Amino acid sequence: MAQIFAVVSGKGGVGKSTFVTGVARELVLAGKKVLAVDCDIGLRSLDLLFGCSEDVVFDWGDYILGRCDREGLVVSGTGGDLIAAPRFYDPALTGENLKKLIDTFAGEYDFIFLDSPAGVGTGFSAAVACAKKAIALTTPDPVCVRSCGRAVSEAEKAGVKDIRLVINMFEVKPAVKKKLLNLDECIDETGAQLLGVVPFDRALTFSAVTGREPDEFGASTQAYQRIARRLTGEKIPLVCE
Ligand SMILES: Nc1ncnc2c1ncn2[C@@H]1O[C@H](COP(=O)(O)OP(=O)(O)OP(=O)(O)O)[C@@H](O)[C@H]1O
Ligand SMILES: [Mg+2]
Could you read off the pLDDT of 139-161 as tens digits, one per residue? Predict the structure, then answer.
């Protein structure tokens, strides 16, 4: 049975979709079956990051609206299998309807990640409705951290019990100089248990642009590897990553 995670944040652009792509890729390399579901209605991006946008014909909105069957939905990319986000909003795109679909995939995968858009709107509600667990991402910027705390409490209200924190784009120097929050302050402010820290890594932007796989020894790849291993139950100590 799949472990199903909603991947959420408060502010946008904190790295959720990049994180889903990186961690899913590591889980696939470790032999796990992974499905990623883009919940960013109207602003899909995971198909690009997975390198399979040309293969996408249908999205989960088409399924809910009766325009395709379940088999036509799934495409394959660098992070495993993917279901693309609807291009347009429709009132039928509810969490309840998406959950019915996701539940049918739970027996076929080890991990399912629902990549939420920023904020706590329709796509967020759809993602958290499908998951009992969530991963909340923030950067160490105080504004991001506060809004991440808000997303954590909204996810809890929606019934998500197990919420872990990932601090992305972390750099030691600004934290030491008190220009950005340190790890303890991020954890205290969001109230979520730390799953991992991903360093700021400019190579990620380049790999998104060029479509080239990131360096396997790169700082972010190593962080994604450690997080993927923690998700599979290994005890990997937190190095300041
Ligand atoms: N650890 C990192 N270091 C440096 N850049 C990063 C890191 N993680 C993500 N990025 C860059 O940040 C930008 C935003 O990433 P991404 O699209 O994954 O964010 P998002 O949270 O999914 O955004 P949205 O809220 O719009 O869905 C991208 O250019 C990506 O390459
Ligand atoms: Mg995104």
Answer: 999 999 999 999 999 999 999 99
In total, how many domains does the chain have?
1
Query: Would you list the DSSP string of 54-84?
Result: GG---BHHHHHTTSS-GGGGEEEETTEEEEB
Nearest-atom number in ligand 1 for the CA of 137 is 21
What's the domain range around 170? 3-231
Q: Is residue 108 part of a domain?
A: yes
CA angle, residues 160, 11, 53, in degrees to nearest 5: 85
Q: Any residues with Cβ below 6 Å from ligand 1, and which? A: 9, 12-18, 40, 45, 117-118, 168-169, 198, 200-202, 204-205, 208, 220
Q: How far is the CA of 230 from the centre of ligand 2 (A)?
A: 23
Q: How confident is the model at residue 220 (pLDDT cuts 50, 70, 90)?
A: very high
236 belongs to a structural domain? no
Q: Which ligand is nearest to the CA of 49?
A: 1
With 70 as the cut, is the pLDDT of residue 241 above it?
no
What's this model's pTM, rounded to 2 decimal places? 0.95
pLDDT at 239: 67
Ligand 1 geometric centre to CA of 209 (Å): 12
12, 15, 71: which is closest to 197 by C-alpha? Answer: 15
Give the CATH number for residue 146: 3.40.50.300
Assigned domain for 238 exists: no
Ligand 1 pocket test: which of 138, 205, 209 has the largest number of ligand atoms within 8 Å of its C-beta?
Answer: 205
- Domain assignment present for residue 142? The answer is yes
* Mean pLDDT across 27-44: 97
